[in-house]
Amino acid sequence: MAVQPAVYGASERPPRGDYTRAADDYTCAQNWAAYTAQDHDTYHRLYLRQCEQLPGLASAAFIAALPQLGAKERIPRFDDINERLYKATRWQLVAVPGLIPEVPFFQLLANRKFPVTDWIRRPEEFEYIVEPDVFHDLFGHVPLLFNPMLADYMQRYGEGGLKAARLGSCEMLARLYWYTIEFGLIRESAGLRAYGAGILSSHGELPYSVHSPEPQRLPLTLERTMRTRYKIDSYQQTYFVIDSFEQLFQLTEGDFTPLYERLRGLPEFAADERNP
Ligand code: PHE
Ligand code: FE
Description:
The protein is of the alpha/beta class. It contains 13 helices and 6 strands. It has one domain (5-264): Aromatic amino acid hydroxylase (Phenylalanine Hydroxylase, Orthogonal Bundle).
C-alpha cells in the first residue's frame, strides 16, 4: 500500500525503504533489476501458499481478478500490470520506497495512482512482516482495483483524506480504511468472505477472520468504525461486515464534515471492546 504511517501506527523503527530514491511525491522507479532469485522465490512461495486457501475465504471479486497480477513465479513489473489495470479502471500503480505520509498518500489515490512498495520481505519474515511489502501491496490490494466499484471508492477515499487532513480528522478516516480496505469482511450469498488486503495477504488471519469464534463481527456503520481503535500487531478482535461493495460506496457518499464534528465529542471503543 504504502499506507500513511497513521494507519500502521507511528513506527518506532525507521522505515526500511531507501527514501533518497523518491521524488517529491514519494514515487520512485520500481527497481526490478535489483530483485534477486531469492526475492522472486519468496514472492512465488507466498503467492502459491495464499492461493491455495482462497476458495471459501476470499471474496469472489478478488478471486476473479487475481490472475490480472500475471505470472506468479516472479515479482511482477508494475508497468506490465498497469497496461491491464488502466484499461479496466483507469488506475495505475506507482512504486514507492515504503510507507509514505498521509497527505501525499491521499494525493496519489485522489489521482487514481496506487502506491506499491517495491521491496520484498526477507525469507525469515515469511510469516509476518511489520511494514507492508510488495507482496502485501500487490497481492492484497491490486486485484480489487480491477473492480469498478472499489476502484471508485479508493479514489473518493483519497479525496476524502485530503479533506480530513484539512479538518484534522485523519485518525477517524484512517480507521475506516483499516476496517474496510485492510480488514474488511463481506457477506456473500455463499457465506462470509474477506476483501481486506491485510487479511488476504496473511496466511493466518485469512481463515481466522472468517471462521474463528474469537473475534466479534459487527455490521459496518460509519460511526462505530470511526470510533474504534485498532491494533497493528495482532489479529483483529473486531471485524466490520458489509453486504456489498455498493453498500460501502453508498455509506461513504455524503460529506463527512458534520460526522467528524459529532464523533469528536464521543468516547472511543477499544479494539476488542464487546459493545456494539
Ligand atoms: N465522503 C467522505 C467525505 O466527504 C469521503 C470518503 C469517501 C471517505 C469514500 C471514505 C470513502 O469526507
Ligand atoms: Fe495495505
